[in-house]
Every structure is written in C-alpha cells, then in structure tokens.
Amino acid sequence: MKILLVNAAAVSHTEVDALQDWICRAAPRVQQVTRVNLDSKNIYPCSACMSCQIKSPGICIRRDDMQDLLPAYINSDLVIFVTPLFCGGYSSELKKFIDRMCPVLTACFEKRNGETWHIPRYDKRPVSIGIGLRDNPGAPDTIFRQLFSRNMKQLNISQYSCQTLIQGLNPNQLEMTFHQIFNQAGIWL
C-alpha cells in the first residue's frame, strides 16, 4: 500500500507527526508513506482554463510543484489530507491542491444521483481521508465535512472518511482517533 500524506498544517505539527509515526508502526503492509508539506511547495491557483481537460488531457499548463504531486496522488492507494480549519473550511494551501486535481477528470460529464459530475480520467482512485485540525472542541466542523464530501464526490471517490481532530490530545487519544478515522474509510491497519 502506498500512502500520500498531504499536510496543509505547519511543517512540524504534533498531530501530523503522530499520524505519520502511527501509520508506520500500525501498518506492516504499507510499502511507502510520502509526506508532502504544502507550505513548502510552490503551487499556483487553478486558472480554470480547462487546458488539462481539452488541450492537453491530463496535463496542467501551470508549471509548478503539482507536476510532481499529481503523479504521486494518482499512484497512491490512500491519500490523507490534513488541514487546520479556518472559518470552518480548508487552509488556502489545501484548497489550491484540491482545485488543481482537475487533470484527473475529463471534460465529459455524467449524471450521478441526479447531479452532474465530471467523468474521472483514471479507473484507479485512491481511498481518501480528510482530517481537519481544530483547537476549539466546540468549533463547528459542518462546513469542512460538507466541503470534503463534495470534493470527493467530484473526484468520484466513493471510499473516504472525514473527521475533525482536536489539537492537543494525548498519544493514546490520538491513536484511538486515528483507528476510528481509518476504520470509517474501510482501511484496517
């Protein structure tokens, strides 16, 4: 199993470090864990030019670090997105990363459950997990959950889970929460 850990939190973040360590300890069948710290990557916003779907299918015309990150995403079995919550939603770094996923979609559309969605370019799509980091236990997480769910539906990813994580949990609480998040996604480590 190849895992891509997309970190939109600070480069050194206690919960993200604990998650990476837990995956490496808990998952003997994991072949590779690649951690991408988005704040150290140069990712331009999507210009919505549709070139990646029409002019150069599957290839974005923007020349930045997404040229390396997109193949890593496509070749992963599991992608974990970790982001601090701002106003209930993603960080701007994760928003840019997800917006730039357009090359994995075609310019064609289909109806799914009464809604119109892009048709995916590739048959294989990774299981996805979204983890929102919040420092206030009472902070709402509805926007994050809905946004992540809609983004996964757009990418035609049916196996995913989304959870918020209160920052500052002790190691045992973190491990129990990680187990719960992975089990919800159908990943048994």
Structural commentary:
The chain has a single domain (2-184), classed as Rossmann fold. Strands 2-1-3-6-7 form a 5-stranded parallel sheet, sandwiched between helices. The protein is of the alpha/beta class and 189 residues long. The chain has helices at 14-26, 66-74, 92-99, 142-154, 171-184; strands at residues 2-7, 32-37, 78-84, 105-112, 115-120, 127-134, 160-166. The termini are close together.
Main sheet: which strands, in order across?
2-1-3-6-7
What integer value in Å does the Rg equal?
A: 16 Å
Q: Any idea of the CATH class? A: Alpha Beta
Order of secondary-structure elements: EHEHEHEEEHEH
Looking at CATH, the homologous superfamily is Flavodoxin domain
By oligomeric state, this entry counts as: single chain
Element layout with pairings:
Layout lengths: L1 E6 L6 H13 L5 E6 L28 H9 L3 E7 L7 H8 L5 E8 L2 E6 L6 E8 L7 H13 L5 E7 L4 H14 L5
Parallel strand pairs: 1-2, 1-3, 3-6, 6-7
Antiparallel strand pairs: 4-5
Helix pairs in contact: 1-5
Q: Summed up, what is this model?
A:
Helices cover 30% and strands 25% of the residues. The protein is α/β, with parallel strands linked by helices.
